[in-house]
Amino acid sequence: MNSNANAPRLDVRHLSTFFDTDEGLIRSVADVSFSIRPGKTTALVGESGSGKSVTSLTLMRLLPRTASTQVSGQALFTNRAGETLDLLALPEPAMRRIRGNEIAMIFQEPMTSLNPVFTVGEQIAESVRLHMGLDRAAALAHAQRMLELVEIPAAAQRLHEYPHQLSGGMRQRVMIALAMACNPTLLIADEPTTALDVTIQAQILELMRRLQHETGMSILFITHNLGVVAHHADDVAVMYAGRIVESAPVKDLFASPQHPYTQGLLACLPAQQRKRELAAGEVGAKRRLYAIRGQVSSPLAPPPGCAFEPRCDHAMAACRVAMPGLRNAGPQRAARCILVPESAAVPLEIA
Ligand code: SF4
């Protein structure tokens, strides 16, 4: 443990997670490094199976207990007292004090986290009593304030309702209230709005942004939707087949994506397609939305060399020789592709 006032909130270094299965060893997360600045949002973006959710579960030490896993690397977390702790090396009791208190998580489906047999007020109050030591009445009053904070109408009444009595959007707000109840310094949001319709999704994302502005918390935002990232992240790391293939400040990534996979993800966005059509004077032409061809390779039989090679429009023989390393692609940028000119080594904090 050490003290560092200027440290990133979370500094993940060379994180790898392997699952030992009957069919062989699966490398789900491979040598992943990224950081999250205090008060800022870093997005981990990728398709299903890219390793982004396993990354967050590894950081929280919440991988299924039955899984035979091997984890290596460091996850240096700086708490509100300014102490830097390696989450992967902490004893379990210390990690339990951090979970829900310093670091909170919200998931895509609130019903997996909310207990159906307790009222939402009781569930928030229980967390507050556990981590903040408040008595029952004070904890319930705090729970009501949290429901008001996430803009749930008639909070005093909703406090005594069960999760099944609330709409999907309302349940996600309760989930955020629960996560925010102990004023976390880091919120891990894993696909928090994927199950919601577009209007409610926008409201929830706006709510998260407001809470971040008011509390100064950092956010690790995990999503498959690059379109959402544009408005809600400061930094982005794109994952493919367990590795980070590109990382950059969000504006730079959208202005000039360097990796063919990122370029493909951006091309899939309807807004980006419309922009291209406008530029080409092709408005109104009937076109199919772009899609990246093929599928992610099986982790049990990865291709030799670059993992994206079977789907890449720019692939060449050299891509099949060895997995490309991350290359410096500009200030605070890195990309894992041989098309990026080789220059100085990549500083650890950007990739
Ligand atoms: Fe495509 Fe080759 Fe770059 Fe991989 S290394 S992304 S196959 S060009």
Provide a descriptive summary of the structure in words:
Keywords: ATP-binding, Cell membrane, Membrane, Nucleotide-binding, Transport. Residues 12-266 form the ABC transporter domain. Belongs to the ABC transporter superfamily. It is found in: Cell inner membrane. It comes from Polaromonas jejuensis. It is built from eleven helices and 13 strands. It has an eight-stranded mixed sheet with strand order 7-8-9-4-10-11-13-12, with helices on both faces. The mean pLDDT is 88. Helix content is 31%, strand content 22%. By secondary structure, the protein is α/β, with parallel strands linked by helices. Helix 6 runs parallel beside helix 7 (198-215). The protein has a domain at 116-183. The protein has helices at 52-59, 92-98, 120-132, 136-149, 155-158, 168-180, 198-215, 226-232, 250-255, 260-267, 270-280, and strands spanning 2-3, 10-21, 24-36, 41-45, 69-78, 83-86, 103-106, 186-190, 218-223, 235-240, 243-249, 327-328, 334-335. The site of iron/sulfur cluster (SF4) has 13 residues, from loops.
List keywords for this structure.
351 residues, alpha/beta, 8-stranded mixed sheet, 11 helices, 13 strands, 31% helix, binds iron/sulfur cluster, ABC_transporter-like_ATP-bd, ATP binding, ATP-binding
Class based on secondary structure composition and strand pairing: alpha/beta
| Average pLDDT, all residues | 88
Largest sheet composition: 8 strands, mixed
Helix content: 25-40%
Low-pLDDT windows of residues: none
Cα gyration radius (Å): 21 Å
Q: What is the count of DSSP helices, taking H or I runs of 4+ residues?
A: 11
Gross morphology is globular
Portion in strands: 15-25%
Measure the end-to-end span.
Answer: 23 Å
Sheet with most strands: strand arrangement: 7-8-9-4-10-11-13-12
The ordered H/E elements are EEEEHEEHEHHHHEHEHEEHHHEE
Small molecules in complex: iron/sulfur cluster
How many strands?
13
